[in-house]
Design brief:
It contains 12 helices and 20 strands. It is α+β, with helices and mostly antiparallel strands. Strands 3-4-5-17-13-20-11-10-6 form a 9-stranded antiparallel β-sheet, with helices on one face.
């Protein structure tokens, strides 16, 4: 109401502040009436409602765990794809080393600020990971030096903070001389800091005593998947003529369901047996399944002894869908049964698991089948997981391949295709060659649907062989 009165005065063509009486009344209203509005009961109620609205929105915003998880995702991408930290900070996804082509070229280049790089380095620093903290804090220091003296309201850290953390990281990595150099630079900007002054004296004494300077810690082992073959289209490592059994075919599997529309099968590998079925699901079906799972997505868990728990080696969200959830899910299960020739009726198979891998989402090397009789998988009382069907519900721009570690090959994300492999030998033993990993998503949003099929019910569909070792 106050605003409308003031606005009316300004918009009235016959009213002019040249009129001293109008000018006086306007000044009085601005001076006297505005405090009445600010301190009114109505304003207090409005303020409380606005604050409550902000708090409600805050519940949906990323938290500290999400931010730290995103920082760890960047470090994971750095490791697995051997990316240059300086390149990442400049928005370029390029392998470390000169002359390497970018692994991924986004339409719009996004650069990281000095404060962004500092936060990634600080996450590594807080966990004692000085290999990563040095790389990211070096970039933060470099960027802070370029902008020193200018104030950025988004910065929560400073050049001094970055120098302080970087110096101690180098000290913990064994490079005392460089820790001393960085600490002296820190004192140039903050000469009264007693703690850093004591550190300088300590480093000088250690160097005078001739303390052996250990080499900086090297990078952690690439535990995720073989980084040299994650992004390109799938190819056999050997010449095609050496793989006469690898090829493409239309398959009906002796099932009437597939007579009019045979499955498009590509044999990917023989041992382990891995096949890729192209166009296994339609775009509409994929979107329906993603939509059904979306409201139920939760952080994925893994089997740990007799329990299930969250783990850093599997970063994703997942949900489970029964075949009664939608006719699309029921039709998909019928299609899986037809292509695999296996019995999916309860309890011979698990519900459809829908998984979303976001920023840096990955799953480190693991087996789908249980390697211990204490595994929760045996609670179904239908044996071990004999086979896996993994359906790619989306495409990704880069990364996200499924890598079979011991067999040394990977399969990229092929939208709407289904990947099938046997987890067990015919004698029921686990196949060690099925050790596989979901490589980190470098760019994009990866959705998959997993169907795990168990041993029981398949006795006459995949019988034992005459050779007990088979």
């Amino acid at each position: 109401r106050f605003y409308e009165k003031v606005q009316a005065l300004h918009q009235d063509p016959k009213a002019s502040v040249d009129n001293p009486l109008l000018a006086f009344s306007l000044i009085k209203r601005l001076h006297s009436d505005w405090p009445n509005i600010v301190y009114s009961d109505e304003a207090a109620e409005n303020t409380q409602a606005l604050h409550a609205g902000f708090k409600e929105v805050e519940q949906e915003l990323p938290g500290a765990e999400d931010l730290d998880g995103a920082a760890r995702a960047l470090m994971r991408l750095q490791d697995v794809y051997a990316l240059s930290v300086k390149g990442m900070a400049n928005g370029v996804f390029q392998r470390a080393g000169a002359g390497q082509p970018p692994l991924y070229s986004p339409g719009r280049r996004i650069s990281l600020s000095a404060d962004d790089c500092f936060h990634v380095g600080k996450v590594a620093y807080d966990t004692g990971d000085y290999y990563h903290s040095i790389a990211w804090l070096e970039e933060a220091v470099s960027l802070f030096r370029l902008s020193y003296g200018s104030w950025n309201p988004e910065d929560r850290s400073s050049l001094e903070d970055a120098l302080d953390h970087l110096a101690f990281s180098y000290f913990m990595a064994g490079n005392i001389s460089h820790a001393l150099s960085l600490s002296r630079e820190f004192l140039h900007y903050d000469p009264s800091n007693g703690r850093v002054s004591r550190n300088v004296a300590k480093y000088e004494k250690l160097l005078e005593m001739g303390t052996a300077v250990r080499g900086c810690h090297g990078p952690p082992p690439h535990r995720y998947c073989p980084s040299h073959m994650l992004l390109g289209p799938f190819f056999s490592q050997l010449a095609p003529e050496l793989h006469p059994h690898l090829g493409c075919s239309y398959e009906t599997n002796g099932n009437p369901y597939l007579l009019l529309q045979p499955a498009k099968k590509e044999m990917v590998w023989i041992q382990p047996y891995v096949a890729l079925y192209h166009d296994f699901i339609s775009d509409d079906e994929a979107e329906t399944i993603k939509g059904l799972a979306g409201p139920w997505l939760q952080r994925s868990v893994v089997a740990s002894g007799e329990k299930q728990q969250k783990a850093e080696y599997r970063i994703s969200k997942s949900a489970w869908l029964k075949d009664t959830a939608d006719p699309v899910v029921r039709a998909l299960e019928q299609r899986i049964a037809a292509v695999t020739g296996l019995d999916l009726r309860p309890p011979y198979a698990e519900y459809l698991q829908v998984v979303n891998y976001g920023l840096g989402g990955h799953y480190e090397p693991h087996f789908d089948h249980a390697t211990s009789r204490k595994s929760p998988l045996y609670r179904m009382k239908s044996g071990n997981r004999i086979a896996t069907v993994m359906i790619y519900l989306s495409a990704v721009e880069a990364g996200g391949a499924t890598a079979f570690i011991h067999a040394n090959f990977s399969v990229p994300v092929v939208k709407n295709a289904a990947l099938f492999w046997w987890n067990l030998h015919r004698n029921g033993d686990g196949d060690g060659d099925t050790l596989h990993a979901g490589c980190p998503v470098l760019a994009g949003d990866k959705w998959v649907a997993n169907k795990w099929i168990h041993e029981h019910g398949q006795e006459f569909r995949r019988p034992c062989s005459a050779d007990p070792q088979d």
